[in-house]
């Protein structure tokens, strides 16, 4: 059989893999010898937006097709780099070069009128195949029904439905369901506001001797995930005062304003599922031969110094991993 392409690339999060995704992959298999599935958010912890691991999504995808077809589908993990598009593109290019060795006819395929349209525009040197949206199907309402009511939508391949049926009995599902309920309750408190609220927070990024100061979150939202010390801005408080106050409350560490060397706003519109949240991050680099003693307090179940080499996106709260990588230039 003669194929138009050696490789067609399909980029997405596939949370979960549904019939719209299957439609694209089926079309790609007809046009290319191989289909490369670049699976995003591979370095994220389990959250309502990204509830399933890379391996679980790969299982859903490959299980949808027969052995001959699945042998032509190559699933590759792609990490989030929320505040560094150049790094994200580098990761894409590196993964593809490793898979193709820079050989063959490569194209990119996806739906119009969704995130795929954005991806298609980023690779002008590749031929782009734009497909119509399949029944306007989106993963977001499928996740909502699943975590809100335990509904497994039939507009998914059997492999996805079977996985979700098995997952629903796990502790991870129950934890995510509780977190979903917490987020919905948080949003309900603001439902009568005349305009959608915009929340302001401040975080402290403190580094010393190759270590970054982290907390482990307590409470209902993000429990157990690593985060920067920080919290919501009080109505009569300056951002820097909020950062220093939260740092002291959550870790016991006291630093002074003149030790702050850098600050940066992070305002990705969807950085928090609770609602539009803008944070101002204040950076301090301490000196000394001994790391200061720290102890978790307030909303933090513990505080600790983490070696930079042990930073792990799969354990980090919201976009804090991307913030650290951006501010430290890692």
What does this structure look like?
The structure is a single chain. The protein is an alpha/beta fold and 330 residues long. The chain folds into two domains: 5-167, Rossmann fold (3-Layer(aba) Sandwich), CATH 3.40.50.620; 199-328, Alpha-Beta Complex (Nucleoside Triphosphate Pyrophosphohydrolase), CATH 3.90.79. It has ten helices and twelve strands. It has helices spanning 19-31, 54-63, 67-70, 85-100, 115-121, 139-149, 158-167, 171-188, 239-251, 320-328; strands at 5-12, 32-39, 73-77, 106-111, 127-131, 199-208, 211-217, 226-227, 230-232, 260-266, 277-286, 300-307. α2 (54-63) runs antiparallel to α7. The chain is globular, with a radius of gyration of 22 Å. The model has no long low-confidence stretch (mean pLDDT 93).
SS class: alpha/beta
Distance between the termini: 46 Å
As a percent range, the share of strand residues is: 15-25%
CATH topology annotation of the largest domain: Rossmann fold
CATH domain class name of the largest domain: Alpha Beta
Percent of residues in helices comes to: 25-40%
List the helices and strands and how they pair.
Layout: E1 5-12, H1 19-31, E2 32-39, H2 54-63, H3 67-70, E3 73-77, H4 85-100, E4 106-111, H5 115-121, E5 127-131, H6 139-149, H7 158-167, H8 171-188, E6 199-208, E7 211-217, E8 226-227, E9 230-232, H9 239-251, E10 260-266, E11 277-286, E12 300-307, H10 320-328
Parallel strand pairs: 1-2, 1-4, 2-3, 4-5, 6-11
Antiparallel strand pairs: 6-7, 6-9, 7-8, 7-12, 10-11
Helix pairs in contact: 2-7
């Amino acid at each position: 059989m003669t194929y138009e392409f050696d490789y067609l690339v399909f980029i997405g999060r596939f949370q979960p893999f549904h019939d719209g995704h299957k439609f694209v992959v089926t079309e790609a298999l007809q046009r290319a010898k191989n289909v490369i599935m670049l699976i995003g958010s591979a370095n994220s912890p389990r959250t309502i937006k990204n509830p399933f691991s890379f391996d679980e999504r790969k299982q859903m995808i490959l299980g949808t097709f027969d052995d001959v077809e699945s042998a032509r589908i190559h699933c590759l993990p792609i990490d989030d780099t929320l505040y560094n598009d150049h790094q994200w593109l580098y990761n894409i290019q590196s993964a593809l070069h490793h898979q193709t060795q820079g050989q063959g006819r490569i194209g990119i395929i996806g739906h119009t009128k969704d995130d795929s349209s954005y991806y298609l525009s980023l690779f002008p040197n590749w031929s782009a195949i734009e497909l119509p949206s399949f029944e306007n199907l989106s993963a977001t309402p499928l996740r909502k029904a699943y975590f809100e009511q335990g509904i497994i939508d039939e507009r998914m391949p059997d492999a996805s439905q079977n996985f979700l049926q098995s997952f629903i009995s796990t502790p991870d599902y129950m934890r995510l369901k509780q977190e979903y309920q917490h987020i919905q309750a948080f949003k309900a408190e603001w439902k009568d506001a005349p305009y959608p609220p915009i929340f302001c927070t401040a975080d402290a990024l403190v580094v010393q001797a190759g270590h970054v100061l982290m907390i482990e979150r307590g409470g209902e939202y993000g429990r157990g995930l690593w985060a920067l010390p920080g919290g919501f801005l009080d109505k009569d408080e300056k951002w820097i005062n909020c950062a220093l106050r939260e740092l002291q409350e959550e870790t016991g560490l006291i630093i002074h304003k003149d030790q702050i060397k850098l600050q940066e706003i992070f305002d990705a519109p969807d950085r928090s599922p609770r609602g539009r949240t803008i944070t101002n991050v204040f950076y301090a680099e301490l000196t000394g031969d001994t790391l200061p003693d720290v102890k978790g307090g307030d909303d933090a179940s513990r505080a600790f110094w983490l070696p930079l080499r042990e930073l792990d996106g799969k354990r980090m709260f919201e976009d804090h991993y991307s913030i650290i990588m951006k501010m430290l230039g890692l």
